[in-house]
């Protein structure tokens, strides 16, 4: 089943949100009328109801969060399933007519235990696909663990472990910018112990053309005072002039080979082991 993100960020009160949450109901609000037909709403409402209808038809795994204005459940997420064949129903809560769907097998999880689910939430949206959270939502619903392998890491987590690898190997001494959020073509920017600039790009993609494009962009950072490093899948590893290629599988293996190490513990916490 597809993974979907829904944010309860509508006209409402904390009391109503708490009631929706306790009843395990997904709710969207577009105009205060009882119709559940997408064509009866403007473009935003139409798109949201069409997407919700598709989820009811095919089934979906859902992560539900509340908007920033609400005090209740701000530190947690509701994870559940929309069963195939479910219906969108209009329900009145305190004068607000919501379009609702019943969740099944739902459970509340806390961001303190799953910080990634807070970090990777789509912004400024009511309902959207959420493929980056698929493995984690499936594991939560199944009360299982995601596989302890490099492919289970979110791209942002992959950037962190590559940084830790460079630090462990004493290639990088200090960061100059936050990881993965500052430059479009480089994920890690720092210096070594001698003050030499380190520029590194990280990807889990196995698409050759995408990797070549990233390599070309990384090359633009080459200078006499810089070292360039590319982290990518072992299956795509090859020699590049002026760029050191390090496989992400090797990074994962090195950081987890000592089960008592802080890096191994870090990865296990990332994957909820």
For the CA atoms, what is the radius of gyration? 22 Å
Here the CATH topology of the largest domain equals ph1033 like fold
Gross CATH architecture of the largest domain: Roll
Largest beta sheet: strand ordering: 7-4-3-1-8
Uncertain parts = none
Topology, number of strands: 13
Instruction: Give the DSSP E fraction (strand runs of 2 or more residues).
Output: 25-35%
Q: What's the multimeric state?
A: single chain
Provide the succession of SSEs: EHEHEEEEEHEHHEEEHEEHH
What is the 3D form?
Answer: elongated
The CATH class of the largest domain is identified as Alpha Beta
- What does the largest sheet look like? 5 strands, mixed
The first-to-last residue Cα distance is: 24 Å
Summarize the helices and strands and which ones pair or pack.
Elements: E1 2-8, H1 14-22, E2 25-28, H2 43-58, E3 60-66, E4 76-82, E5 89-93, E6 96-102, E7 104-110, H3 115-119, E8 127-129, H4 134-142, H5 155-168, E9 174-175, E10 188-191, E11 197-202, H6 208-219, E12 226-232, E13 243-247, H7 248-256, H8 262-270
Parallel strand pairs: 1-3, 11-12, 12-13
Antiparallel strand pairs: 1-8, 2-6, 3-4, 4-7, 5-6, 9-10, 10-11
Helix pairs in contact: 5-7
